[in-house]
Amino acid sequence: MPFFSVVIPLYNKENYIQDTIESALNQTFADFEIIVVNDGSTDESLNVVENNNDSRIKTHSIKNSGVSRARNIGIQKAKSDYIVFLDADDLWEKNHLEELYKLLKANPDCGIYAMGYLKIFNNSKPIKASFHGHDNFCGIVENFFLASTIDCIAWTSAVMIPKTIFNTIGGFNENMRSVQDTDLWIRIALKYKVSFCSKPTTYKVIRYEENHLSNYAFKYDGEEIYKNFKNEEKNNLPLKKYLDFNRFSMAIECKINGDKENYEILRKSIDKNHLNSKQKLLLIIPKIGLVFLKKVQVWFIMINMYMTPFKN
Questions:
Q1: Of 308, 22, 9, 310, which is closest to residue 157 (Cα–Cα)?
Q2: Chain centre to alpha carbon of residue 163
Q3: Interstrand relation of 112-121 and 194-206 (parallel, antiparallel or unpaired)
Q4: What is the DSSP letter of 156?
Q5: Is 171 exposed, middle or buried (0-12, 13-18, 19+ CB in 10 A)?
Q6: How many CB atoms lie within 10 A of CB 90?
Q7: H or E element in which residue 194 lies
Q8: 17 neighbors 45 (Cβ within 8 angstroms)
Q9: What is the Cα–Cα distance from 196 to 133, expressed in whole angstroms?
């Protein structure tokens, strides 16, 4: 039985999946299997994967059902007790699994094990993710929600979750077309400890030319995730603050996409005391101003200057 099971959901990533597979195969910790769940790809993605002659790679093809369904099937097929996720266009450093192994041995009985990560916007230089009070940290996170108010402590391609956790709380919510990962992190962090090492061992690749989320996804899931934790956030101030930051992000996207109805719902549900001055200003700027500022942000990123509203 392999020590780790690496789950890769795959949908139309023929230009990126080989680099992703190679970053997994080249790990210094070699005791793992790779489960690629082909989610109804219509390009050559599956052929690219199957051209790799390595017995650790297993493929399963399903009708296109969304990333949550693909990940859940991967979890079900996994032979090991520890599930590691890798998206089909993200990359690992060679020591990623080795560092997760060390984190597990140092801090047993946690619900999430997470490593730090670097963000790459198109062809920009890697930018290190920033975590509130945890930029140089390795151990048990005192409060997952407060620590995740800049970048989230947990990011899908940088986490490992024991299979027993999924058996207890369930997997990714298959009814949600976006923020499924956020929903899962909250469910786990409310009940279990989170172990985190800020050393970056993964690359989160963000490609602006791809339309990952539609206006309809925000319209549906922007309401659903907050309904799920309506009672919990009343009595959990850190969770409320974390959700308000997520509401802020969704509200901005709703306004940019012309979804005025859900923008108002999200805006009114935010405790403005949780926002910094930049966020408060962005929340009231007209759509045309937000579109312009988004273009400015992308331009600065291309010259390796990263601006974010989550830092003062």
A1: 9
A2: 18
A3: parallel
A4: G
A5: buried
A6: 23
A7: strand 194-206
A8: yes
A9: 12
Residues 181 and 269: their CA atoms lie apart, in Å, by 21
Coil, strand, or helix at residue 265? helix
Sort residue 122 into left (φ over 0), alpha (ψ -120 to 50) or beta: left
Residue pair 7/37 in contact by the 8 Å Cβ criterion: yes
Find residue 159's DSSP bridge partners.
114
Q: State the pTM of this model.
A: 0.91
Residue 285: burial class (beta carbons within 10 Å; 0-12, 13-18, 19+): middle
Residue identified by tokens 């956790």 is 165
Q: Quick check: helix, strand or coil at residue 6?
A: strand
Orientation of helix 287-302 relative to helix 237-256, angle to 10°: 100
> Mind listing the pLDDT tens digit for each residue in 275-297?
999 999 999 999 999 989 888 88
Question: Facing residues of 127 across strands?
Answer: 119
Q: pLDDT tens digit string along 174-233?
A: 988 778 899 999 999 999 999 999 999 999 987 765 444 443 444 445 567 778 898 999
**Cβ atoms 196, 158 nearer than 8 A:** no
The distance of Cα 100 from the centroid of its chain, to the nearest Å, equals 17
